[in-house]
Amino acid sequence: MKELPLEVEELLSWLVAERGRSRNTITAYRRDLRAYCGWLTERGQTVDVVDPATIELYIAALRATGRAPASVARALVAVRSLHRFLAEEGDAPADPGAAVEAPRVPRGLPKALSEEEVASLIAAVVGNDPIARRDRAILEVLYGAGLRISELVGLSLADLDVDGGSLRAFGKGSKERIVPLVGMAREAMRDWLAGSGRGALEPERWARRGDAEAVFLNARGGRLSRQGAWGIVRRYGDHVGLGDRLTPHVLRHSCATHLLDHGADIRVVQELLGHASISTTQVYTLVSTERLRAAWAAAHPRARARPLASI
Q1: Which residues of 152-174 are buried (b: 16+ CB within 10 A; e: fewer)?
Q2: Looking at domain 115-297, what is its CATH homologous superfamily?
Q3: Average pLDDT over residues 263-275
Q4: Which residues are the active-site residues?
Q5: pLDDT by residue (tens digit) across 284-309?
Q6: Is the dihedral of CA 110, 115, 120, 126 positive or negative?
Q7: In 146-220, where does DSSP find H-type helix?
């Protein structure tokens, strides 16, 4: 389906204007709703005449294709949002999605790196040329400040207070928060912002509005993209043998896990990461508990049970 129904486009516009949803969220909604509307069209149905059984059939069809539970759940969120919007706007007689139960998604534990692996990753950035300074700052800030990759590449110079040790990040839904920029992350950022760092990549003439304010630049002097930053992280991960274990989000996971390992309060970690719910942050306490149990089992002399002596 090339063109989406008008009702879907109205929902997407409403999500941007009224709910402040990010570009990435809208892209995901558009993709999921395009697939849903295409499936309805094949069945000769339209979005304004759907019952709960139809939605359940669609979910079953997604599962039959081998989609992961999290992917199916995300698609259902988009579908339910559409039908709720249509009902509230008076474009449908009822909300069929309200009667459809969301599929359970197994709660996986974040795969954090060890502190030694993080140190090895950052140490893989060698040299003092502009690209090395940039890449070192990217890795240090992703890990040190726990930023999402979209928050990192969205940083503008006005968002930084390097001397004061903080930065302003815009998270999901454009929610603003202040994040500490201290220690090695601050030093790496200061090194990158020097004239022989970021200044060396500045073009004689900026190609696009906003590039001049971007904190992180690509080799051509434009704002670094998500894909570009992702590739930088992956390149150094491959260099030290982390391979598919490493993504930008794994550095965020590692930041949270290591903070909790060293006694940080969970509410502080919640605020740092910009989680709306404490339950999201609590996943990291499970990681720390598992690591503590593994360390105890490996090191404690009474970790292995011995059979009772026969009487």
Answers
A1: bbbbeeebbeeeeebbbbbbbee
A2: Intergrase catalytic core (1.10.443.10)
A3: 82
A4: 148, 172, 249, 252, 275, 284
A5: 666 565 555 665 666 656 566 555 55
A6: positive
A7: 149-153, 183-193, 198-201
